[in-house]
Amino acid sequence: MKPVGTDTTVGFIGIGVMGKSMASHLLEGGFSLNVYNRTKDKAKELIKRGAHWCDNPGKVASDSDVVITIVGYPSDVEQIYLGDDGILHHLSPGNIAVDMTTSSPQLAARIYHKAREKGVAVLDAPVSGGDIGAKEGKLSIMVGGDEDVFNAVMPIFSLMGKNIVYQGSAGSGQHCKMANQIAIASTMLGVCESIRYAEKAGLDPGTVLETIASGAAASWSLSNLGPRIINGNFEPGFYVKHFIKDMRIALESSEEIGLSAKGLALAKSMYEELAEQGGENFGTQALYKNYL
Amino acid sequence: MKPVGTDTTVGFIGIGVMGKSMASHLLEGGFSLNVYNRTKDKAKELIKRGAHWCDNPGKVASDSDVVITIVGYPSDVEQIYLGDDGILHHLSPGNIAVDMTTSSPQLAARIYHKAREKGVAVLDAPVSGGDIGAKEGKLSIMVGGDEDVFNAVMPIFSLMGKNIVYQGSAGSGQHCKMANQIAIASTMLGVCESIRYAEKAGLDPGTVLETIASGAAASWSLSNLGPRIINGNFEPGFYVKHFIKDMRIALESSEEIGLSAKGLALAKSMYEELAEQGGENFGTQALYKNYL
Q1: Is this model's pTM higher than 0.90 or not?
Q2: Hey, what CATH topology would domain A9-170 get?
Q3: What is the CATH code of the structural domain delimited by B175-291?
Q4: Average pLDDT per consecutive 10 residues, chain B (292 residues; last block may be shorter)
Q5: What does UniProt give as the signal peptide span (chains A, B) (predicted)?
Q6: In chain B, which residues have their Cβ closer than 8 Å to the Cβ of A204?
Q7: Between chain A's N and C termini, which has fewer beta carbons within 10 Å?
Q8: Which residues from chain A sit within 8 angstroms of residue B238, using beta carbons?
């Protein structure tokens, strides 16, 4: 494993809202950057700033020392890593791949083991903090895999995040992200029910929010999403459709490790209902709309 | 309505853990105090410090200008206010009664209207902040009833609390408290599921907690009760049995105002399960025990 330094070439696959900000910090940090995205247009600005375009993920892999991926669904991750022309075919011994997609912990472990057979190190390193955290380089990064690889990649992580924590063996980063999403899922039920209750009871929900948001009912969701709900603002900070994806992974993973996560199951089913009624592109606070 | 001043005699019914601290602040504040409690023993210290003992609630009512009640269940509130020898029979026009029990909003409105026929003003003013908030005089007090009465009683409230907010007409204080408990109920599902998930996934739950407790999953419950769960500490900050009482009121009230509070219903049923298995005297964090 080559130490990561400014002579390290980093590959970046997945230039979405998150990926674009994250890759941008790597350019600013002085790394030579290879990029690929399904829609080339989204990589234009990075290319203008010096990133090298690659026509496919395999090319990114063969031309880079460390490859970072942040894509959509576990199926995309599986395709990119393990597919017929997946990056595992193109990475060389000593290379490192880091999947920062929120994806399945079980898939992460599977990729880790496949890669290891080839002498390639893989970390799972999903993030939280959203587009603002990505833009400001203040993401939380939850990392699973080998600890020496985690340490080696730290110069790259530290350009993108602030709260960067090693969680354990392969898949542990994803598991930690799932624990995060599980905590949020039921909290959202409480926030939306509470505000709807206040309104239906004839109270002023803003006054109620001010009263309860600093005590034992306090939560990030109540303080940050509560006011948006009251103002009828359902614009996405975090998309309903993306949260549903995460909750599906979390519920599958819960079942796999033998946990009956009833709050999560309820939240997931209600968000799916919301999506079926056309709410998939709202922000997660739109769960409120389920409470008629 | 006589203005509340240091010549006001205050009656206090219900000298439990909360009531004792609250009444103590009123004594320190210079009020003349009449007290009654089902178990006289619990009032001993207050009596030693100058409070006058009354043999029944009616005596408290007839000897006081402002009567405060903080008892157990809505059935106790109903008995004390509307029972055959209830305080409404003993209060005089111009007197004020303040129920600080967490109780039914609908009952609060009923008592308000009965009292009004007699020229007696009633506020519903449940609190949050627990025994520590009561001891430190830092309770949140959520008040329903007439606003001029709320203003008149402020010198008394301000000795017991910090965050004292008028919520609207009779019952609104209770409704606000219910909104608070509804937000907490589902959040507790999320907190317990998240920690149990982390453990079952083989992660170090303390590390996970540190990682997620300051981001979008942040909540008072996660930060304050999460560490207790991890340390196997299920001692009561807030008793399971009291939370169940509150959730029953909240669910009944939700049904009454036409809200299907599914998260609340799930949390309530799980806490009831916990109580049936002998957990009623644990703290609310013991919900964790339901996740095997």
Answers
A1: yes
A2: Rossmann fold (3.40.50)
A3: 1.10.1040.10
A4: 85 96 97 97 97 97 98 97 96 97 98 98 96 94 98 98 97 98 98 98 98 96 97 96 98 97 98 98 98 92
A5: none
A6: 167-168
A7: C
A8: 216
